[in-house]
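Sequence design from tokenized structure. All designs in this work follow the same two-part layout: the structure record, then the generated sequence. An example of the structure record is given first.
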């Protein structure tokens, strides 16, 4: 844009149209003006050519107007055409920029709807880091506790969707239950040993009551990664051994994580097979058992000492907050405000999963667990959930985690479950 056009069209006075008309009344002195009007320079008023191609006088006579009126009307028409053409030339870069903006926005919406690309990188410890479009999404940690876990997990708007404690100390977080690590699986008693709790659960000096549990602490030992696949639907499959206090194998666990993005939400499917490879194995009825995630302290329903208590729990049957505990449901959503962002995580129980629909050990302080094992522990009026897994037999647990923005309605969790339930 030339300086004279800029001064005339945009940067002088409060009325650009008036200034443009004033600037263009005597001359077409800038490149933009010449390009817009096809004029090469100054227009003498008496001999100027009207828009019709005739002189001002001829144009006024043809219109049966006085020479003065004709000149005025024809000049105003010419000036309006000239002004509009010049403005089109000057605004062309802005118009193109706006079109580019809309194109980019459309591409982002399309990418969000159809998902990004995941890449998996093996860690030195034998776990894996999962990236989405080159950015960190989560890590499968295998060597920091008596169980494996995913932590941290980054939501669709960049929010950390899991509590950091005990892996990392963050000011303002709740520091209870150190065995609640990110997204993990554990059970208080399979084959007589506990993989739910860990040594730090009981403090430096366990009481007489808890000493027995300490002596029966087991572990879920990662053995190997059996499959790693990148792409829009990435896969991390692993095998692990549940072992007793001496490291002897009790049962085998095959776990398959599937990562994807749908409608802007980030999804992790966790399919677990527990196989009695070593012999008949008792799987006891315990409250503290199942597949869990510990939500951020700000997302908890309870305010607590550190938590801000912005959260809400709701399940597929309409039970909310504390009333959702121990209830059977096909899905549960836990949402709240974290660092000013409205976010949530839904956990879906597939129809083929063991004892579907599962009871939920979901707490208002932030624990979120699908527990099909503790039937009587969660509801004293129920029959016992304890059973013996015969040698060679297995049970399958299938769940989907949806990390989303907004509440369960905004994230359309009911519709998402209907789609998930149709999957084989």
């Amino acid at each position: 844009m030339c300086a004279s056009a800029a001064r005339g069209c945009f940067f002088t006075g409060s009325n650009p149209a008036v200034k443009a008309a004033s600037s263009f009344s005597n001359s077409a002195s800038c490149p933009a003006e010449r390009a817009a009007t096809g004029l090469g320079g100054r227009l003498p008023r008496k001999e100027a050519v009207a828009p019709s191609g005739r002189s001002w006088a001829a144009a006024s006579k043809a219109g049966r107007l006085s020479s003065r009126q004709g000149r005025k009307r024809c000049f105003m028409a010419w000036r309006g055409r000239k002004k509009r053409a010049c403005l089109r030339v000057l605004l062309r870069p802005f118009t193109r920029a706006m079109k580019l903006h809309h194109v980019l926005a459309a591409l982002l919406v399309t990418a969000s709807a159809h998902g990004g690309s995941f890449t998996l990188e093996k860690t030195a410890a034998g776990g894996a880091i999962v990236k989405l479009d080159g950015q960190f999404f989560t890590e499968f940690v295998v060597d920091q506790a008596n169980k494996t876990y995913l932590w941290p997990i980054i939501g669709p708007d960049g929010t950390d969707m899991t509590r950091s404690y005990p892996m990392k100390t963050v000011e303002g977080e709740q520091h209870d239950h150190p065995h609640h690590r990110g997204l993990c699986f554990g059970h208080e008693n399979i084959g007589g040993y506990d993989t739910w709790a860990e040594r730090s659960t009981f403090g430096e000096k366990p009481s007489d009551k808890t000493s027995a549990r300490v002596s029966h602490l087991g572990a879920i030992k990662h053995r190997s990664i059996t499959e790693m696949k990148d792409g829009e639907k990435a896969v991390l499959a692993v095998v692990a051994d549940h072992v007793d206090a001496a490291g002897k194998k009790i049962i085998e666990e095959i776990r398959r994580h599937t990562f994807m993005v749908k409608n802007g939400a980030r999804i992790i499917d966790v399919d677990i097979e527990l196989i009695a490879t070593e012999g008949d194995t008792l799987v006891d009825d315990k409250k503290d058992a199942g597949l869990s995630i510990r939500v951020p302290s700000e997302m908890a329903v309870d305010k607590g000492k550190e938590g801000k208590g912005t959260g809400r729990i709701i399940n597929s049957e309409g039970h909310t907050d504390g009333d959702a505990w121990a209830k059977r449901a096909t899905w549960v959503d836990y949402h709240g405000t974290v660092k000013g962002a409205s976010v949530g995580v839904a956990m879906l129980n597939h129809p083929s999963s063991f004892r579907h629909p599962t009871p939920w050990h979901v707490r208002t302080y932030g624990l979120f667990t699908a527990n099909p094992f503790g039937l009587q522990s969660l509801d004293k009026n129920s029959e016992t959930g304890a059973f013996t897994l015969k040698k060679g037999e297995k049970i399958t647990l299938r769940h989907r985690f949806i990390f989303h923005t907004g509440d369960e309605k905004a994230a359309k969790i009911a519709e998402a479950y209907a789609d998930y339930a149709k999957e084989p």
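Residues 3-111 form one domain. We note this feature because it recurs in several other targets discussed in the main text.
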